């Protein structure tokens, strides 16, 4: 509304001030004109009275009637009347507008008017009871009395009488003129005040509109500078503020994007926690940690809730005001949490937690320590057996030719085992360093799977295990891959599945193609893998349970080699397992050759 705007307030203020000034000025002028008119009327009436008094005192031989007629003519010019009292005689005239019908008794008894008979001039304005054709009424009269000398000690009196209404008529005309001038002044003031306030308010409205746009993020709007007064200076200051604010917001936005990019691409997780232990900000690794924690604790995984262990750590950080470090194990992975308090002046307003997944580092450290031990262990057994049986042959412990042949066969088997170990180590080294080439060619994928599965039929029958294959939908379908390397992967997976499945168990192999990707699954109903061992099954020399091999030779390198072969084909390999229920290995292969030339 206009009354709530600065235009309305400024306009109303000017109008009120001008109206009050004009009101007081009008009252002053009216009072001034009224007093002036009364004084002017008194002066005229006094002059008439003096002239009448001189005519009466200096008659120059004229009769009384002639003198009275002259006085009447003079008085009548000014719409007045007179009352002459001399020698106890009373003369009145003329009969016209000023006729009052006042009695002699009034003049002789009134305290002010009777002073004329003592030789003093008087004037009086008051309300008197007068007789009219319609009866008696109160009328406001102005009476001026002038003494007329009758003798040296006696005075008569001539009273000039005029109704105040006659002077009031002139005053009413003056009032009307004053009222018209005041009204015109108010109208003109209203117009110019509104024009002035609009001139002032228009730039302010534009600045308000621009301020709202700036609040919405539009920093390109500019307020035009129309005047060079304070309002113009305000518009210039606003434009300078907008430019600086745009520069600051742009710099802040860039820094925010940089920080968001850094956080999103950090390998470590970052959590910003407020004083209520609620997550204010996070990045993907931190989200993964929180999800894993809530999943493990059987809590709601849809909403990111701060883990209880981080809440406790936040309390310690807030209490001590220093950085705290704690190691947490979640879903078989080791996390190191570094939590540091955040201050707002001297008050802690939250904390930032850096979550570092140390699983691989810890495992690599363990692998470095155990690599030599694993190799030594794998080589020591065949070397010891070869050494022992060689000494037995030299010492002629075997007395028969068949005994010597059996010992030589054991030495041959162990040497082959050492050869396989060395070859797998060499293959793994080539795969890890990329010093090998895939021999990709298009083959009938259905026949390929039948051939690979068929190789294990006898082994499965001997172990009392049912081996099933489902690759009918692949018959007649060609796929680009390295058949020798892929056969090596499937051989390792199927062999592991048979060796780790109990008698009367089932091993199922099936495959399908979706969106130019070959999906292969090897599922068994065996002993399964412990949850804490699942992340490491593709590491070299890793054996989660030595008892699972059931005495059959295994180097611990097969799955590591299989992983590198699958990745060289542009695919992925993974495992899902429930201990005591079985394991499923699955991998995908892509027909698109990588440009790296592996």
Automatic annotation (TrEMBL):
<dbReference type="InterPro" id="IPR041328">
    <property type="entry name" value="HisK_sensor"/>
</dbReference>
<keyword id="KW-0808">Transferase</keyword>
<dbReference type="Pfam" id="PF02518">
    <property type="entry name" value="HATPase_c"/>
</dbReference>
<dbReference type="InterPro" id="IPR035965">
    <property type="entry name" value="PAS-like_dom_sf"/>
</dbReference>
<feature type="domain" description="HAMP">
    <location>
        <begin position="198"/>
        <end position="250"/>
    </location>
</feature>
<dbReference type="Pfam" id="PF00512">
    <property type="entry name" value="HisKA"/>
</dbReference>
<keyword id="KW-0418">Kinase</keyword>
<dbReference type="InterPro" id="IPR005467">
    <property type="entry name" value="His_kinase_dom"/>
</dbReference>
<keyword id="KW-0547">Nucleotide-binding</keyword>
<keyword id="KW-1133">Transmembrane helix</keyword>
<dbReference type="InterPro" id="IPR003661">
    <property type="entry name" value="HisK_dim/P_dom"/>
</dbReference>
<keyword id="KW-0597">Phosphoprotein</keyword>
<dbReference type="InterPro" id="IPR004358">
    <property type="entry name" value="Sig_transdc_His_kin-like_C"/>
</dbReference>
<dbReference type="InterPro" id="IPR036890">
    <property type="entry name" value="HATPase_C_sf"/>
</dbReference>
<keyword id="KW-0902">Two-component regulatory system</keyword>
<dbReference type="InterPro" id="IPR036097">
    <property type="entry name" value="HisK_dim/P_sf"/>
</dbReference>
<keyword id="KW-0067">ATP-binding</keyword>
<dbReference type="InterPro" id="IPR050351">
    <property type="entry name" value="BphY/WalK/GraS-like"/>
</dbReference>
<dbReference type="Pfam" id="PF00672">
    <property type="entry name" value="HAMP"/>
</dbReference>
<keyword id="KW-0472">Membrane</keyword>
<keyword id="KW-0812">Transmembrane</keyword>
<feature type="transmembrane region" description="Helical">
    <location>
        <begin position="12"/>
        <end position="33"/>
    </location>
</feature>
<feature type="transmembrane region" description="Helical">
    <location>
        <begin position="177"/>
        <end position="198"/>
    </location>
</feature>
<feature type="domain" description="Histidine kinase">
    <location>
        <begin position="374"/>
        <end position="593"/>
    </location>
</feature>
<dbReference type="InterPro" id="IPR003594">
    <property type="entry name" value="HATPase_dom"/>
</dbReference>
<dbReference type="Pfam" id="PF18698">
    <property type="entry name" value="HisK_sensor"/>
</dbReference>
<protein>
    <recommendedName>
        <fullName>histidine kinase</fullName>
        <ecNumber>2.7.13.3</ecNumber>
    </recommendedName>
</protein>
<keyword id="KW-1003">Cell membrane</keyword>
<dbReference type="GO" id="GO:0005524">
    <property type="term" value="F:ATP binding"/>
</dbReference>
<dbReference type="InterPro" id="IPR003660">
    <property type="entry name" value="HAMP_dom"/>
</dbReference>
